Amino acid sequence: MLNMNNEKDKAKMMNYYRTSEMLNLSYFFPELSPITDLVIVETTEDYLNNKDYYESFDQNRFDTLKGRPPLIGVENAGKKNSFYNGLVRAKEIDENGVIVLFNINSVPTERYERLAGISVRVEIGDGVYIDAVSKGFDGREVSKSICTHERYYIPWYKLRSLNIENFRDYQTFLIDNEEYQITRRERIEFLKSLGLDSDIVSKYIPEKYEMIPDKVWAYVIKELLKKLEKNEEILSSYGFKSFAISGHTEGDKFAPWSMFDKSRYTSINN
To answer: What is the DSSP string of 161-218?
Structure first.
């Protein structure tokens, strides 16, 4: 096991794709990151020997070492009883595959209960590009370029005057209901494939498109967009001149898990 609270372990954890992205976010935007108690389970033997401890965690992701093809095709409903099977599946795809377990600083929601999934791409000195999906969706759709419901572009020089009253002036795309219905059906089918009840899921995903609430965007503006210009120098000094932050909401708050640079952003979307 590798634990984020151990400095030696933390250095090793930075060698993994998704884990390093989670640690980057907690370092540069600590108020935004919801992640606590992050650990990596490297082997199935370790998992079985410490099963009770690992199943005290609420959240999971799958990861592999940098330099190897990113680990894709491993999904689950986020339930504790699927952690082990997910790790087995990850090992089948890549012998270096691991499961990343962590908690968040709020009550975790089901994947169909979230108000939005949001991906914010930052080009320092140029502007901010936002792709988002609405109620019942999450960060999966936007981080993997599966679909987008709302899109925004804010020029860098406009960040200082940005507020919730003028935010929607920067909208560049809004899905129509016909296209939305296609994404809704695909989302329901995906959640069903994870073993979730389709009758329950369909009740949470609106039949007609509902725009992402202002309260969500107000939080994004306050905790992320307004801090970009202030942190421009330190971000650039660490090489983060072009990066993305992606995740979903927990309640009214944007609670992203990842911050990754341009090369990783490109690989995810190709």
So the answer is: G--TTTGGGGEEEE--HHHHHHHHHHHHHHHHHTT--HHHHHHHS-SS--PPPHHHHH
